[in-house]
Amino acid sequence: ETKKPVEMVEGAIGEMVFTFIDWEGSPLLRYILGDIIQVFTKPCECGFPGIRFKILGRGDDMLIIKGVNIYPAAIREAIARFHPRTTGVLKILLDQPPPLVKPPLKLRVEYGTGVKEAERDTLKEEIKRYMQENLRATPDIELVPPGSIRIEKGQTGKVKLIEILEKTRTL
Q1: Count of C-beta atoms within a 10 Å radius of residue 19
Q2: Which of 36, 131, 148, 149 has a 20 to 30 A CA-CA distance from 108?
Q3: Which of 26, 60, 94 corresponds to the end of one domain?
């Protein structure tokens, strides 16, 4: 957001920038990739001692809901946590192009096969609670049957999670 350096501490989140300072005789260049990452500085449980990072999303994918930055990939991960009660397929429904989102965040999520009608309200509430606690957003969730959300891919082959809803115009 500020484009200022972020201290490399456990859990720090920022935009990844590469700078090659060891190259002699070359200009000091910064390569801004646009990836938003979270840094892990503590040694890994596997024994790897170096700094690790997790890509949270792209800076240009970010959604802003009441001042809270949320990445579609984080929403997808949140929904995937509820597998097999969800298929993991979802659409983020927006009234206007990102990044600004007028609350509430609207999600269309496929429930998993075998999820009974009586269980769906509980599933919705659990997803909503998880997203409130972990992503600081309270979604409005529409659960739909498995296979009912059309999966679209962009030019890069990446699945499109966001759908801009068409507003009906009145004259």
Answers
A1: 10
A2: 36
A3: 60
